[in-house]
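Entry 14. Ran structure prediction on the chain below.
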Amino acid sequence: MQQSFVFRTIEEQQAVFGTQDVWARKLEEALNVTLTMRGDAVEIDGDESDKAMARNVIKAMVQLYHQGETIREDLVERLIEESREGSLDGLFKAMDSAVTMNYKGLPIKCKTFGQQNYVEMLREKAVTICIGPAGTGKTYLAVAQAAQELKDGSIERIIMSRPAIEAGEERLGFLPGDLAQKVDPYLRPLYDALRDVFGQERADRLRENGVVEVAPLAYMRGRTLNHARIIIDEGQNASLSTLKMALTRLGEDSRMVLTGDITQIDLPKVSDSGLARCAEILRGVQGIGVIHLTNRDVVRNKIVKDIVKAFEREEARQAEQKRPNAAPRRPYGQDRRKGGPIYVKNESTVSEGSVHDDTHHV
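Output, structure tokens:
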């Protein structure tokens, strides 16, 4: 039986199917269907399940268009993937509201179910630990949430930090300039996130006024950080003792987020990284949330998601060769639930002063 979808206007059809029907062709290729325009209706031919998925994706594209979203390749890819998983409702929920507005007055929104769970955890927990591959928005969403908290007046300043560690095998040697100039290149990704959210002029002004502080992780020792949102980036490049030092800087009315990618450790010895162990130790502490994002939450150029998947396959193959009798380890493989394992608070009561596990898988 043939399925169809009726567009309300020609503008709606052009926005959804793209220039020269580029997104219609993508749907045909990805879902193994044929789309034929008949006046204001598109007829869908193919297997019943494929036709149903195609119609659901077209309907979703129309709805997002009317919500002000621009239909781009990455969005079409996510809609197709979520339709295959039967999870379009979760994606709509994730994209329903803005985390904050950027300096251009445009909303910064979550783009995956995992990202939505991450932002909810940022809002609810005193400490959030987010582990996931590159491109999942770990730092960007943390900065966006911090910007909103600054606007709301719930915090007085934003403090951003990361280890001053060179990437990969690069060894730059002595850098020119004073101490601030030497460490500045390592902090550039944090500046980029600030600029994207606040704009260059306001970001510079906030830094000059001390409302936003960007500093190497080593500068955190001995401080007590009150009324602040603290963002510790690239946590995989810090030892367990350094992460303990950073986490214990948390002062009155402050919240902290610790982010990192355990597949991109730049320390001389991978075993020196304390991020994964830190997450394990703190998982049972009330007020602390741990979330693992996956390759499904990658929202950069589509090729980034493909790169992450390719490396995961190679890492799984190597792990299988090293451990022939054990299942391969897949750090960021697709989880049955979008966004990987989520840890949420258990509302059961516990006697005052005890340390208990307030998290469970959902």
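Residues 5 and 50 are 14 Å apart (CA to CA). Will compare against last week's run tomorrow.
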